[in-house]
Write a sequence for this structure.
C-alpha cells in the first residue's frame, strides 16, 4: 500500500527553497499529501512560493530554530509519515518514488528512514575548501534531517524535537537517540538527495563553535557516552582546552613578568595552533586566501569552542522555572462565545476559568488577554461597546495585566490578527516578558499558530466549535482552564 506522507521544510527564506519545492512537486511517484513550509524568520515579507500541484501550507515559527520549526510542521501535518527536508537540498526526479519504496511495508517497530545525502565534489577536480569539507561530512552523518522520514507515531511517542537546541546542530541526533531508546528502529533507505556545498564567510568556522553548547546539552541528557550513542566523532575539545589554557597562561605569566615561563606556555600554544592549522590547510586548495583564513581561525576556534561549551554546561544545569506570563484568548476561552458580543450583561465565564486564573495569580504569574475582534472592522459592534464588554470581563475575572485586541478584518493584512504573532508579542512587551517564555491558551487553531509564530508555548482547550483537525494538531491539550493553568505552571509535564 502506498504510504501516506507529508513533507515538512523549515526555512529562513533562502532562494534554494523555490528550487526544492519545484523538485518535489515535479517528482515521479506518489505525491505527498501536502508540503508544509515553516517560515522560521523573526520578521520579513511573506514567502513568495511558486504555484505547485501539491497543496502547500506556510506556517510561522518565530525564529526559534529548526527544532521548533520542524515541531510546528509535523504537528500540523496529516501524513502517517513525515518526510523532513532542509531547504538547501535538491531532490532528483525519482525522489518521491524512492521515498515511497523506502517506507512501503516497513514494520511497525521501525520509527524512521534516512535518505542518502550526496555532496557534489568541487569543480575541476580541485581540493575542497574548509567549507566544502564540512558539507561533505553530511554524506556520512547519521540520522540528519536534511532528508529523514519519521513515522508520526514515533514523533508523538517521544514528543518531537527538543526545542532547547536552537541551531541546526545535534537536534536531529538527539531525536534519533530518543526514538531508538523508546524501542524503535531507524533504517537507511535507497533514496538520494543532493546537498550543494555551502559557501560561508571568513569567520564562519568560529561562529560554528556555538554548537559546543549543544554538545553540553547532549552530555547532560545522555551522559558522557553521548558521542558513542549518537555515533558522533571523537571531537577536539580536549585539545582546544589545552590550547586555550596555555594561551591564557602565557598572557598571564607575561603580565606578571615571568618571561621564561610565559615563553614555555606560549610555545605550547603556538605548537597546538600550528598543528591545528596545518590539519585544516593540507587537505584544502592551499590558496593564499584559504591559508590566511585557516591560520587566523585556528587561533580563534579553541577559545570560542571552550567558551561555548562552558555556557552550554551552565545552561544545561539551570533548573526550569515557570512561564514569564500566560496569555488568554477571550471568546470561548475566558468567556462563553456570543458572536460579536456587544452587551456586557451577556458575559459568562467559561467553566474552570475562575479556578485557573486564581491558580495563576497565586503563583504570581502575570496574565493578559489577546483577542481578535473583527466585529469592529465590520461595523457590527463599536469600539465603545467592545470596551464595555471587556470591562465586564475584567470585573468578573480580572484584573488582567494587559489587553491586546486586534480590531482589523481578515482582509486587512495586519500583523496583529491571530494567527499572526503580533498580539502575543505586544502582550509580552507590555508585561515585560520574553515571548519565548510565555504560554498562550486558546480554543482554536489560530490561537495555537499565533503562539508558535511568536515562539510561545500553546495550550488548546477545545470546545464544541473546535475543529477535529485543530485538536489533532495541537501540541498540548487541556480539558478546561483550570487544567490548562496547571499545565502552564509545570504541575504536569510538557
Amino acid at each position: 500500500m502506498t504510504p501516506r506522507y507529508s513533507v515538512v521544510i523549515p526555512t529562513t527564506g533562502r532562494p534554494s527553497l523555490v528550487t526544492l519545492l519545484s523538485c518535489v512537486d515535479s517528482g515521479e511517484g506518489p505525491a505527498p499529501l501536502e508540503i508544509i513550509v515553516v517560515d522560521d524568520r523573526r520578521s520579513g515579507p511573506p514567502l513568495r512560493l511558486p504555484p505547485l500541484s501539491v497543496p502547500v501550507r506556510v506556517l510561522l515559527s518565530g525564529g526559534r530554530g529548526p527544532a521548533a520549526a520542524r515541531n510546528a510542521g509535523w504537528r500540523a501535518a496529516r501524513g502517517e509519515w513525515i518526510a523532513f527536508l532542509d531547504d538547501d537540498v535538491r531532490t532528483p526526479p525519482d525522489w518521491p518514488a524512492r521515498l515511497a519504496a523506502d517506507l512501503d511495508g516497513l514494520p511497525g517497530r521501525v520509527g524512521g528512514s534516512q535518505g542518502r545525502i550526496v555532496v557534489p565534489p568541487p569543480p575541476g577536480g580541485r581540493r575542497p575548501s574548509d567549507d566544502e569539507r564540512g558539507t561533505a561530512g553530511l554524506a556520512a552523518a547519521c540520522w540528519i534531517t536534511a532528508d529523514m522520514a519519521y513515522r508520526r507515531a514515533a514523533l508523538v511517542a517521544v514528543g518531537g524535537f527538543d526545542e532547547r537546541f536552537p541551531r541546526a546542530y545535534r537536534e536531529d541526533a538527539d531525536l534519533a537517540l530518543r526514538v531508538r531508546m523508546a524501542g524503535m528502529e531507524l533504517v537507511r533507505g535507497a533514496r538520494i538527495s543532493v546537498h550543494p556545498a555551502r559557501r560561508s564567510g571568513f569567520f564562519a568556522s568560529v561562529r560554528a563553535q556555538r554548537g559546543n553548547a549543544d554538545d553540553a546539552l547532549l552530555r547532560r541528557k545522555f551522559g558522557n557516552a553521548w558521542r558513542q550513542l549518537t555515533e558522533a566523532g571523537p571531537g577536539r575539545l580536549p585539545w582546544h582546552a589545552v590550547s586555550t589554557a596555555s594561551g591564557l597562561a602565557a598572557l598571564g605569566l607575561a603580565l606578571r613578568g615571568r618571561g621564561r615561563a610565559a615563553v614555555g606556555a606560549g610555545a605550547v600554544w603556538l605548537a597546538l595552533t600550528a598543528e591545528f592549522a596545518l590539519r585544516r590547510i593540507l587537505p584544502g586548495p592551499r590558496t593564499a586566501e584559504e591559508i590566511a583564513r585557516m591560520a587566523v581561525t585556528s587561533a580563534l576556534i579553541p577559545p570560542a569552542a571552550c567558551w561555548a561549551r562552558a555556557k552550554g554546561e551552565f545552561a544545561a544545569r539551570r533548573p526550569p522555572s515557570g512561564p514569564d506570563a500566560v496569555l488568554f484568548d477571550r471568546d470561548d476561552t475566558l468567556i462563553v462565545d456570543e458572536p460579536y458580543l456587544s452587551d456586557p450583561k451577556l458575559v459568562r465565564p467559561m467553566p474552570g476559568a475562575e479556578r485557573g486564573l486564581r491558580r495563576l495569580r497565586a503563583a504570581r504569574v502575570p496574565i493578559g488577554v489577546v483577542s481578535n475582534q473583527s466585529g469592529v472592522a465590520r461595523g457590527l459592534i463599536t469600539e465603545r461597546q467592545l470596551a464595555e464588554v471587556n470591562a465586564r470581563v475584567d470585573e468578573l475575572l480580572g484584573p488582567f495585566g494587559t489587553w491586546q485586541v486586534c480590531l482589523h478584518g481578515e482582509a486587512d493584512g495586519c500583523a496583529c490578527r491571530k494567527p499572526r504573532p503580533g498580539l502575543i508579542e505586544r502582550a509580552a512587551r507590555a508585561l515585560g516578558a520574553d515571548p519565548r517564555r510565555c504560554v498562550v491558551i486558546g480554543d482554536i487553531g489560530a490561537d495555537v499558530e499565533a503562539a508558535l509564530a511568536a515562539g510561545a508555548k500553546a495550550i488548546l482547550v477545545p470546545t464544541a466549535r473546535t475543529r477535529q483537525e485543530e485538536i489533532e494538531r495541537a501540541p498540548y491539550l487541556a480539558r478546561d482552564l483550570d487544567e490548562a493553568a496547571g499545565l502552564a505552571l509545570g504541575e504536569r509535564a510538557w
About this structure: The chain is about 40% helix and 15% strand. The chain has a mean pLDDT of 91.
